[in-house]
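Progress against Task 2.4 (sequence-to-structure conversion) is shown through the following example record, which the project officer requested during the mid-term review.
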Amino acid sequence: MRKSYEQDCPVAVALDIVGERWTLLIVKELLSGPARFTQILQQLHGIPSNLLIDRLSSLEEQGLVERVYYSERPPRALYQLTPPGRALRGVVEALRSWCVKHVWGRGLSAPRRRSKARGRHASTGARRNGRRPTTRRQTASA
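Structure tokens generated for the chain above:
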């Protein structure tokens, strides 16, 4: 079940609809025009296919995306934005401009994710505290 801000605020309601991870990136891809599922999956590096299915279904339920079948056997479809979905162009462009000006423009980069393995940064492999992790064997002999 999706979480909701449960607030009587237009921004909160909009985030309930498009604020989940990957959702606006899917919209960004579809702003270029209709696309097949595999095309969207290839453009959004790192999104699991089951999550893409979930996000596309949610966008369909909200009336922002529609599925258009171009083949019955086998069933094949394109996803495209509806007029309310295309109206998100300004939001996507505003986020892009904000990032270019206030994040990249200040020499900052995207936040680094930490991997779950021994506190290493996912992007660099650097250790969190600079010390070698201890193994069970080292701990038992100490």
